[in-house]
Amino acid sequence: MLFYLIGRNHENFKESYVLQPKTLAEATRRIAFAVFISAWALFSVNACTVKARTIEPGTIPKIDALAPGESAFGQQLYEDLCDDYQLESNPKRLDGLVTIFDHLIQAAEADHLPWHLYLFDDPETVDVRAVHGNYIFVWSGFLDATENDDEIAALMSCEIAHVLARHTYPVQFTPWTDIFFDVAEMTTSLALMQATQGVVNISGRGWMKWAYVELADLDALDREYSAEEEREAAMIAMLIMERAKYSPEAMLTFWQRVQQDDALHKRAKPLKRDLSPLERTQIIEELLPDAPPQTEPHIPENIQTSRLNFNSKKHNIQ
Fold it and tell me: Across-strand partners of 87?
């Protein structure tokens, strides 16, 4: 489009094209302007999103009930994951995980809510994910990477804490941000269309919101929490672990091992999210009470709690 035909040699089947410098410079400026508008829209809009409520230190937040449609959100993600992963077939592994989870949600006084816990069989994936709708996904590689029930409880309680603190809720935009997105989308689309002389034409609404959520890692399964949210979740998780009689120090020992073990460090990349193991250990050390660094893990006496006691009508465990 930035070229025009000035001559053609029919005998030799040669075509000559001349680039218009003025047109190229103008197109470059327009594209640069469009890119600037898009980048400014995507990375400055964070200040205009609805912020989650602040959790008072020393308290475990409560959720009275799920809103209509919340479970359907998690169910859709579960069905999508089932296309890529098989559920764990070993009942002993699942029973042990369910027992620990049972202790934690009872300690958090959240056992009145519907919870959906699924264990996927994938030794190469070290990850635990809580998503909107009280769905928690665990990959078997995570169980392989832990050394005791306290470490399992540490990471599970962090995900429960993210749910209770409403960190897993889909990002919400203020009315002013909605207007901002509409204007930015229109401006960017027009600039790109003019710069490419109609070759690139972005139509429809909502594409910039989608791009922002994707680039900022705010979609459900790739959610990147802020350092403030991670600190808040760690604080809540420690309270839950103490009530459930698990050792909060296990949270620290797990991330210290991830930091020191290169192989585990690579495998735990999804679990680390946007914080390095060092940053996580620093947060945990600040929150842990003054206690001996080497604390023996506490294994609850009733670790063999029946799975049937957990899998009531209000719960959906595989």
Answer: 120
What's the CA gap between 122 and 87, in Å, rounded?
9
Q: Is residue 56 part of a domain?
A: no
Q: Which domain holds residue 202?
A: 3-48+172-215
Q: Distances in Å between the alpha carbon of 75 and those of 68, 81, 98, 163? A: 13, 10, 19, 16
Interior angle at CA 293, CA 292 and CA 299, nearest 5: 85
Q: Contact 199/77 with Cβ under 8 angstroms?
A: no
pTM, two decimals, is 0.66
Model confidence pLDDT, tens digit, residues 228-262: 999 999 999 999 999 999 999 999 999 999 999 99
Residue 310 confidence class, pLDDT cut points 50, 70, 90: very low
Q: Provide the Cα torsion 33, 38, 44, 45; round to 10°.
A: 140
Which pLDDT does position 270 carry in this prediction? Answer: 85
Structural domain includes residue 186 = yes
